[in-house]
Amino acid sequence: MERTGTRSRGEDVSFLAAEEKREFLSRLLARMAHEIRNPLSSLDIHVQLVEEDLLKLSQPVPSKVIGRFDVIRGELRRLDTIVEQFLRLASPSSLKLETVALSEIVTHVTELLKPEAEARKISFKTQISGSLPSIRADRAQLTQALLNVLINALQAVEKEGRIEVHARRLKSKWLEVAIQDSGPGIPIEKKGAIFEPYFSTKRDGSGIGLWIAQQIALAHGGDILVSDAPSGGAVFTFVLRIDDAEGADG
User: Fold this and answer.
1) pLDDT tens digits, 69-122
2) Which of the residues 26, 72, 163, 239 could staple to 90 if both were Cys, CB 3.0 to 4.6 A apart?
3) Cβ contacts of residue 64 below 8 Å, gap of 6+?
4) Which domains does the chain carry?
5) Distance between CA atoms of 209 and 207, rounded to whole angstroms?
6) Interatomic CA distance for residues 7 and 9, integer angstroms
């Protein structure tokens, strides 16, 4: 990750082009988020009005109808949270940094997805090597990034497949979290585009999950790398910088 020396003219041009593209996508993302939030607010208000109208009826409202309203409100809140994340991603400076234990985030995320893996008979293993140092990070965004990549792995793996998560400290000032799956892997001609927004190798994929995950990693001064797994499948590796002032996780 650490680079020495100066960039060549070609590297400077490529870097500036990437920065301009990122700024454009950030502006587009912010615009989309605002456009989505407006109808969401309207839907939330009208759901409340419909519920109030039902409660005014002479006959009691069936419990299953009330339950459906709870589901609708829950989904509206979830969508609003996603929009809020989009807005935060459009402004990397809005990271809410705190001292976090990466091992806790990795464990939390894998525990969230284990029931889905078990239901599909997918082997799901987590290995955290040694005592990982704490890092300065936005806990919510980093959790979202790991979730996005793990969900991508789950979607790529067939029933009775395998997913392995390895977290370890590198010899330098970096930590890595490698997510390896037994899926079909990434074709070599598509590796360069895998983190492009709206690009997906899956027929029903949105093509935004991996891009969001990489934007979060970049905002933290790290990155996500993709490679082929030795036994087949793909490996997505988060690389994150260690804060020298922090101690080790317990």
Assistant:
1) 888 888 888 788 777 766 665 555 578 889 999 999 999 999 989 988 998 899
2) 26
3) none
4) 9-94 (1.10.287), 98-241 (3.30.565.10)
5) 6
6) 7
